[in-house]
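Project standup — Tuesday

K.O.: blocked on the structure for the chain from last sprint. Re-posting the sequence here as requested.
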Amino acid sequence: MSGCLFCRIINGEIASRSVFSDDNIVAFKDLNPQAPTHILIVPRKHISSLSEAGDGDAQVLGELQLAGRTIAADLKLEGFRLVLNNGKIAGQTVDHIHYHLLAGRRLMWPPG
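H.V.: unblocked you, prediction finished:
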């Protein structure tokens, strides 16, 4: 997906502040953080949204969550939240599935 913002970051066309990378996952600091720690965790494979994910994407979807765990441990976070927005009405602004890892302040519930 040549026009996809996250695909362009993954391909090195747009600079990012990387915090994690492996064969299937890339994670980088959000440019508009909503918490002191705000990291986007993105699969290298373009999947538009959770609704668009297929059965063959199960492994990479699990790897996204495990990458969140690894990043949180590396950053020695006391607690964190992983958020996945699915669709525009839920707040998804980039059509490439991704988790937001949020930490560094008290996170209230419900998130609203």
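K.O.: great, moving the ticket to review. The longest strand covers residues 37-43. The longest helix spans residues 58-74.
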